[in-house]
Amino acid sequence: MNLQKKMKIDMLHGPLAGPMIIFALPLALTGVLQQLFNTADVLVLGQFVGTDALAAVGNNSPIIGLLVNLFMGVSLGANVVIARFIGAHDLKETIRAVHTSFLLALILGIFVAVIGELMARPMLEALSVPDSVMPLAELYLRIYFLGMPAIGLYNFEAAIYRSRGNTWMPLKALAAASGLNIILNLAAVLVFSWGVAGVAAATAVSNYLAAWILYRGLCHEHGIIRLEPGAIRMEKAYAKEILRIGLPAGIQGMVFSLSNLVIQAAINSLGAVVMAASTAAFTVEINIYVLLIAFGQAVTTFVSQNYGAGNLARCRKATRVGFNVTMFVTVVLSALACIFSDALLALFNDNPAVISVGRIRIYYIIGFYFLCVFIEILSGALRGYGYSLPPALLMLVTVCGVRITWIYTVFAAEPTFKIIMIAYPISWAVTAVLLIGIYAFYRQHIKPLAPRL
Length: 453
Prior knowledge:
Layout (H helix, E strand, L loop, with lengths): L16 H32 L2 H37 L3 H36 L7 H12 L2 H16 L4 H24 L3 H25 L16 H33 L3 H37 L3 H28 L1 H6 L5 H14 L4 H16 L3 H25 L3 H29 L8
């Protein structure tokens, strides 16, 4: 079988910039739609329910982000392993890795759901959520956790498609689910007056729809990533390799969210207006950051396939092209977001005080997103080679360390929203400088390697 003809994008031959953009754009749109689940909740509750409901969802954003980042990161392990086998033209190993990935996703999703239900209240208490907001925040989070198995399945199923070069199918599935989420959100609030509980339930149901669409798609595939329900089983060697690569990537994503938990607690101490402003600005910034994530994952997949094919020169070229394209797009979007910050914030809340505070967050975070290009692209390249642990450990020390230290020292001395926001670009700058050195070191020591588990 000619595996390359079955791929949607040829990652092993020809130009890189065009195919990489074609790969990344649907992936970025998928990320936007993933954020739209939460954005839709924020918009509906903020406009039709009230400030307390908006604050309740905003307080859950770091927790939800932490868990979603975990699933996205671990699923990258499946992406890398399957893409490497595709690059090596190893049909048998590709099929076995696909089925192992599906079962692993289901197990992880159920596990996280159970832990989440047990830890919902303690996690919110750790964020210093005010008593006035706590009941709504806890209710939303507990219902949201019921959808965790679907989130796990969707991310792994999407990773299977990405490993083959198909980023459109996950986008189509999530588009359908997002449309359903918006309809159910409006019905829950405007028709049934279910408030926070109805919005959370709508999000969980929509996540299951996205996972089901991809499951049906994989079962009807005619190529190498076809899923045969009767063949689903856990191959320990493949599961171990997926976790070896994916778990550090998941930890890397969680590091940002873990540090944000500490920052969210500091934000909560400044009152409801600051909490609402930060929630609105966060919704804007995360919908831009998904583009950086998309190009980072594109670099991971392109590097992984070419690494499996033994073409190190093309791996390095893919990294350079990915960096240049991502930097250009990031600078343009960051400038536009800063220029139109007031209009963007007004979409969520037209309170002048909220807009004034939210503008600070946009300037200090989106305005410095160019630093994150180094982090996402170089980390993505290292993951493609199978080196997920070094960047994860680095960010555990730099991102978490710098931000937590900043909150307990500088912010403690001058407790203002602006001081909190300054922690972001400082932590990114430190991480970027050190990651450049780590990437340069591994780049000199990586040798062609056929996939062996």
